[in-house]
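Attaching the record inline, Q. Sequence:
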Amino acid sequence: MALSSPGTGKAAAAPGTTTSPAPARGLLPLLLVGNSAMYALYVGVAGILLALQVEQVDPAHKVANFGLIAGVSAIFATVFNPVAGALSDRSGRRNPWILGGGLAAVPAMLLLGLADTILLITIAWCLGQAVMNVYQAALTSVVPDRVPVTARGRASAAVGLGLPFGSILGALTGAAFSEDFRTGYLVFGAITAGAAVLFTACTREPRLPARQPLPFKVQLAAFGGALRDHDFRWAFIGRALLVLGYFAVSGYQLYILQDHTELPDGMKPESAVAVLMPLTSVAMVVSTVLGGYLSDRFDRRKLFVGASALLSAIALVIPAVSASWTAMLAFSVVNGLAFGCYMAVDTALVTMVLPAAEDAARDMGVLNIANAGPQIVAPFIASVVVSVSGGYTALFVVAAALAVAGALAVRPIRGVR
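Structure, as predicted:
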């Protein structure tokens, strides 16, 4: 999985190609369903079932093994996503790739459930990431392909809401199948396949001219050129630092609940995830809406970005100083409020510091590296911190320090208040 900004990147390279005054009827709800199914699989599989499977295979080395699997698969996903996007670009079609990727999730999840060694689990999850990135790359491209510029805000909201809704579905489903992760894997595969069938059966796709992907040298030059801009560079650094801290902790949530948090009597860690994830998701929805509205009203992007990053640091300190269940509940709510507001307002801030309007889509694609790159590094850093320190307290402290650094990174930005 690679967290990305909806409606941006290479697929948005030709904005305005859709000339209809509104998106096709029913497209936005279908985008919500399609993205919710995708995030449900990512959260339920990577956040719960995979962690339980790794622990079953080698409980003594679960932290290091899970970090290895998560890191390698994240590299695989980050590399495969643009490859899958380029393939759908060349065909000029999205629906066949959405349907193919969604249906292929079922056998991929079947293979993952059958894996019984760390090596086989790694290979199977990388294959799962491959088919899911075929699905994700094509689905992400639907907004710039089929939605006019005047409706992009609503479409991006439908895509963005897939994360909290999918997180809730993934956490509840993952917890329900914690005792039978093989069946759970198949359920998540079926959810994704069902969403793919529904989306492709209910949407009519215009045939677009096939587009050639940019050569690697051109993409590399674009990356360097965008980061030479002072304000954009600091926005990039701030995003990368906060995302790194966020995913260093969230990737190990189940193990944190097993080995760090003092759960109420009778509560299993996977059941605790099913409680915490909806709390975080609801908080994220509320702060996304309020943060975007208030930052518009007061015209203060830096203030809200910096404050939400600092709030994330405060949230991370809570479970560092207390291992109680109450502390974890407070952390989940406060961290959800912080991260939702940050992502909403920081995306708006970035659009205001883009180096050149004519290269907006390209440079937003560069920003997505600040989302995807830290997700690759986070599992490795987290496993090292936990292994060296012997616990999760140091991980919370390191993540809080990264959040503070992310807050400070917006201060040098000059072009936005």
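The CA atoms of residues 299 and 409 lie 19 Å apart. Confidence is low (pLDDT under 50) at residues 7-21.

More tomorrow.
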